[in-house]
Amino acid sequence: MASEFSMIRLVLLAQLVGLPLAVAAGPVDYSRDVAPILRDYCAGCHNESEFDGGLSVETFSDLMFGGDSEDKTAIVPGDVAASYLIQTVLRKAEPVMPPEKEPQLKDEEVELLVRWVEQGAKGPSPEMDLSILSNLSVPEMSALADHRDPVTAIAVSPDGKWRAAGRYGKVEIVSSDGDQTILLEGIAGKVKSTEFSSDSKQVLTASGVSGLKGIADLWDRETGERIESFGEGEHRDILFDATFSPDGSKIATGGYDRIIRLWDIKSGKLLRELDGHNGAVFDLAFSPDGTVLASASGDSTGKVWNVESGERLDTLNQPQGEQFRIAFTSDGRSILGVGADNRIRKWELRSRETAAINPVEIARFGHEDDVVNFAMSPRGDWLVTTSADRALKVWSLPDLLQSTVLPVQPDVIAAMTFLDHSRLWVTRLDGSQELIAIDPEMPQSSADGPVASIGESEKAPTAPKEEPPSEMMTLSEGDSDDLRITQLPARVSGAISSPDERDTWNFSAAAGEKWVFEIKAARSKSKLDSKIEILDAEGQLVERAVLQAVRDSWLTFRGKNSSASNDFRVHNWREMELNEYLFVNGEVIKLFHFPRGPDSGFLVYPGFGNRHTFFETTAKAHPLGQPCYIVRSFPAGSDPSPNGLP
């Protein structure tokens, strides 16, 4: 009997220990007990933006309003069986909530929801019926003993008299002579962008709290007072950018919630929403005339919008990764973008008033890692890019040719802008800042850059006028040993009898002379797969040209044999141009004709029959997936600055 009593007592204790404190407590409070559960498990898909199933749990009134189904009420006070939301949580109705792949409610949390409905599903007073997303619980973290708050956003006023540096929660505005400082304080979260108005009298900042809200603040530069705030209540996550329209009448805001919003500065009212991105909006830019807005997004696209109507004019969808920055060139004719696919792209702007495709003008392999930021010089003739690899590179505009590589930075650059035409202001994640000299006298590349001229290396040199056959020196294989040919042109003949055999002939030629060397084995019906090499006096190969890869790709769909000139299918072919050289495993060919559609490929020169090769390379067979590169040619002896590709 005693042992039986002990067993009963043990079971009761186990049940009491496992009983949640909340269940044992008194009345369930909506704000304290229910709202946190709805926020953690439901509000991600059922809010005023997502509205899955027509149900929002963002406010108590939204929850009680219910969803799409007329015969299934989400919450029926006092009746758990009739409360469709509770039944889905109890796994007694379909679809079960939360979905199986999502985090699941704990038993005590389910019990709280059940008891709340049983007690009448009481909510807050109407004036306290606020969005459950307006409060965010974050863990407390102790600050590091030795740290410097990095400057995350910088700007220089159009009149050149002021500099703004944004950190967490504040912006410091300093006069160019350093005599005056204005502090903008009380900013929510990290300052992600800052910008001066065209008259230099106002400052715009973008910030917010991740997972909670995004805010753009307009400030009086002279007094440091906040004039207006935009976005709080509309933007549901941090803002990454806010920018003035050229005429100063509007601002555009964009951030992690994917929605771009246009605001009237004078009234502070929302003009329109631009909805179309499927990822965070990282950057915004107005065209110089203010009629077009461009956006860069984490959905691997840029988009072009009509400012007046909000119509999406084009999607710049050629990128292969997130796009972090976007801008118009100073003349407004082109759009520049960089992102996680390591590329710098330049699109021709055609969709100014109506929808149109904006074709890629130039695509450059920029860095060996994500291209995270860029800055354009005040005169619009230089572009400086930076990457997660901490590299800084200077590119000429409008042709986007690499001009120089600046020293590798000690840490990743957080923000950068030109202070003037010859000085670049950079800030880094380690808290450091620096002014870097940009030589304004750097030679600006032409559209062809340092590419060798046709007569130098891109085209086979023209053969000198042949002497009459009676005067051409003719030598046989037996004459080759240590023979120095003193007269050109000449004709030699020989035979190869073993795989490792080679015949060597010596000749004299002066610098600047151009000669054609050709093999007539095939024309003589020989089965020899012959090859000729031109060596200098030391026996080293004479350098024909230097080729540098500027874009990487690979063969798709199928491999190629050593003769075909059609159907060369390569990855991301839209970023390639006709007459560019394609390097494939030692073979150089030239693009002749664009693909005619998704089920075709490039024609390479000559466009029919056996393909031609360039720079004395030999045609080869190539397997599917073979890496290939668009290359530029430089004169022999050149040492082009490295760009991360071969």
Summarize the structure.
This protein is mainly beta and 646 residues long.
Query: Mean of residue pLDDT?
Result: 85
* Helical fraction: under 10%
Main sheet: strands, sense, barrel: 5 strands, antiparallel
Q: How far is the first residue's CA from the last residue's CA?
A: 87 Å
- Unreliable parts: 1-23, 443-470
Alpha plus pi helix count? 7
Q: How much of the polypeptide forms β-strand, as a percent range?
A: 25-35%
Description:
With 646 residues, the chain is mainly beta. The protein contains 7 helices and 35 strands. Strands 31-35-32-33-34 form a 5-stranded antiparallel beta sheet, with no helix packed on it. The protein has a 4-stranded antiparallel beta sheet with strand order 4-5-6-7, with no helix packed on it. A hairpin with a 2-residue loop joins strand 32 and strand 33. Helix 3 (30-41) packs across helix 6 (107-118). The longest helix has 17 residues, at 2-18. The protein is elongated and about 110 Å long. The N and C termini lie far apart (87 Å). The model is unreliable at 1-23 and 443-470 (pLDDT under 50).
